[in-house]
Amino acid sequence: MTINERYEAAREAYKAVGVNTDEALEALKRIPISMHCWQGDDVIGFDGAGGLSGGIQTTGNYPGRARNPQELMNDMGKALSLIPGKHRINLHASYAIFEEGEWADRDQLEPKHFAKWVEFAKERGIGIDFNPTLFSHPKAENATLSSEDEEIRSFWIRHVQACIRISEYFAGEQGTPCTMNIWIPDGFKDVPADRTSPRARLKDSLDQILSMDYDKTKVYVAVESKVFGIGMESCTVGSHEFYMNYASKNDILCLLDSGHYHPTEVVSDKISSMLLFFDKVALHVTRPVRWDSDHVVLFDDETKEIAKEIIRGGADRILLALDFFDASINRLSAWIVGMRNMQKALLNALLLPNETLARLQEEREFTEQMMLQEELKLYPVGDVWNYFCEINGVPAKEDWFEEVRSYEKEVLLNRK
Ligand SMILES: C[C@H](O)[C@H](O)[C@@H](O)C(=O)CO
Ligand SMILES: [Mn+2]
């Protein structure tokens, strides 16, 4: 059977449970996912300010890491060409691109240092999201926005303000708002004696940052919490409660990273609550394996559950990004598998008879609800997915992998 014939059969199967597959495919095509640049070079960046720090770690030494802007752009371009639909790219400030002999510290970054990224995105008609980089820098050795050292703290305040300007530039150039997400690694390895002072300083730093004039319709500032990090096992200053309260009082957004909570806590259960109080919610979908290990996103239960909440809550209210970095496998394959899995999970959610299921819950018909949810798991989502790839001009099934293998042989293995 051809992909088309299989799709026709799947369309009938879904129609029988009240799902329109054509509408699902149209909806899926309109959901952009922000692909993080940092998977391509193991979170190293180009500003040479310092080795990876902040309690995040990339493990593995698979050959072919991108070593400069051109290599990273080539790799991202190749990966994007094997992912159906139009997406976005997500940059960190440490990916600034300098002219020969030029260098600027993080607090001196300007839009011109990202002009080549704008060119890259414009060629593909895609939007850009941004992150100030408050790690991998000598001034981030102890603390950043919560630092007790006023010079250090004001350096990082200036950095984030510079990033807001750069985000405005991206939004203006690309004609689409830029999500600018703040994550800091500040915290304590062991039981702190004073939790309040660092948090009060972080609050003051954010107040100072947001006191600048910027276009809120162009830049969506978000704050990303974390329960712990390596070396910050006992307390992180930017905790969930801190940021949720701060964001809600100051009209900015929260970003939920699915690796940043206690291992038994799930982000899928948080989205609906957040959407009742915030206009939008930003997400970093990742896969924590026992800790915030940032493994590649799989088509697993939690990713599917997150996707259901995105579809049921309204995908236009979710700023969806991925965040993982695996150096033990082909880095392009990591991007492609993660992005395509997120899309498969969204498709899976779009192919559910969500209204019927919700009605069964309201009627407390939990027996039928469970039966239907379980039966739907074996419906032919794969046939619909393959058709989606085909109509969007990218290889279906595992057929994309050959291209990655050739790229590895011809390009990546020549990077010595
Ligand atoms: C590169 C990081 O993953 C990123 O800045 C941050 O979002 C994070 O998740 C840190 O754990
Ligand atoms: Mn994250």
From TrEMBL:
Binding site for Mn(2+): 260, 292, 294
The keyword Metal-binding is annotated on this UniProt entry: yes
GO CC terms in record: cytoplasm
Cofactor(s) required for function per UniProt: Mn(2+)
A Pfam family reported for this protein in Swiss-Prot or TrEMBL: RhaA
Subcellular location: Cytoplasm
Pathway: Carbohydrate degradation; L-rhamnose degradation; glycerone phosphate from L-rhamnose: step 1/3
Catalytic reaction list: L-rhamnopyranose = L-rhamnulose
Enzyme Commission number(s) from the entry: 5.3.1.14
Cofactor binding notes: Binds 1 Mn(2+) ion per subunit.
Predominant location: cytoplasm
Major enzyme class: isomerase
Keyword list, A-Z: Cytoplasm, Isomerase, Manganese, Metal-binding, Rhamnose metabolism
Any GO molecular function: L-rhamnose isomerase activity
Family annotation (SUPFAM superfamilies): Xylose isomerase-like
GO biological process per UniProt: L-lyxose metabolic process; rhamnose catabolic process
Function: Catalyzes the interconversion of L-rhamnose and L-rhamnulose.
Similarity comment: family membership: Belongs to the rhamnose isomerase family.
Protein's recorded name: L-rhamnose isomerase
